[in-house]
Each structure stands twice: as structure tokens, then as C-alpha cells.
Amino acid sequence: MDNILVYSDSVSWGIIPDTRQRMTFAQRWPGVMEFHLNENKHNVRVIENCLNGRKTVWDDPFREGRRGVEGLAQVIEMHSPLHCVILMLGTNDFQDTHDNKASMSAQGVAKLVSVIRSAPIEPGMPVPKVLIVAPLTINNPCGIIGYKFAGAKKRCEGFPQELEKVSNDLGTLFLDANRWVKVSERDGIHLDEDQHSVLGKVIADFLSDNKVLH
């Protein structure tokens, strides 16, 4: 069995746009991906570690534990052996508590890759492959948390391209989610259920087509 870790934020946690509710595992993209892979004769288990408000390397001044780099090595150790880690982070780096540019957030993702590859796993266990997924570009944030992302559309410009550069430099796999799905019009940040379904199948096919899995 191939264990796949999804390390992400509220987009992958499956928050229903402009609510505080959560989609079921079967509705959110990690669940769709697991079902699609197993249906197509792969033997996989998807482990979700997705936290609302998680950033890459920055602290949140109002909520504890949102610094994605903190504790990541232990998460890798905890769930090893892992075949693949999917990183889909950066959206929250563009909240108005930080004046980050796309290149800065991409370097935050690069730091996460370094931590994954140097985690203290048991001798003989494989260092997992890493897939960087460029998250959806923030567009007209609105609704109950829209105020947190004031100006984020401008700050996150070019983020997928910066992540692709990081991926090329570090030799990871890369997929730009913006090619297949779009953010919900209800909040400009998260995914509607139909887009979760599309993304889960796209990532599943990507892993299969690139022979990432056994």
C-alpha cells in the first residue's frame, strides 16, 4: 500500500465556501483522489494533515500553530513510510497580516520541501517523493473571511510560476491547479464541491501517469 500525505490548509480541508462547515471525505479532493486511484487498481491510503489558516513559514499573530514548517518533520516521521507528500500551501501567506510577494511564499514552500527530505525517519524507510501543487489564485475575496485577504489578489500574482521555478530547482513534481479548476465565486478563495471532484481526479491521474505510485 502506498501512503500519500496531503499537507495543506482550508482549501484541502474542504471548507464549504463562505461558511464554517466542512465537506465530507468523499466530497473533498483528497478523498476523491483516494477513491479514484483505488478504483483504478492502485492500492493507496490518503492521510490528510490540513489546517485552516496554515501558512508556509510565517506565524499567524492571532492564532497558534499556523506556521506550516513547525512540526512538519515530526508529521513525516509519524506517518512514515510515505510514498508521496503533496504540498498545497501558500494561500494564507497572502493574508493582510503579511506583505508577502509570490517569490517569498514560494521560498516558504522550498523550505517545507527541505524539511520533508531531512525528516528523521527510521533507517531504511524511503524519503517520500514531493508533489508541489500550486493553489488557486485568490480572486475578489469576499464573504465572512474576505477581509483577511484584502489586497491578496495583487500580492499573489505570479505565484504558480514562482512555485514551478522552485519545483524545477529542487527536482520535485509540479502541478498547477489553476489549469483545471477555479475558486468559488462565493468567497474567491476556496473550492466548490464540483471543483474538488475535478481536482481530485486530476491529481490522481497525474500521479498515475507519472508513475509515482506502484
UniProtKB/TrEMBL annotation:
It holds the Pfam family Lipase_GDSL_2. InterPro entries: SGNH_hydro, SGNH_hydro_sf. It comes from the Bacteria. Signal peptide: none annotated. Keywords: Hydrolase. One of its GO terms (molecular function) is hydrolase activity. SUPFAM superfamilies: SGNH hydrolase (SSF52266). Residues 10-194 form the SGNH hydrolase-type esterase domain. This is SGNH/GDSL hydrolase family protein. It comes from Microbulbifer variabilis. The lineage of its organism: Bacteria, Pseudomonadati, Pseudomonadota, Gammaproteobacteria, Cellvibrionales.
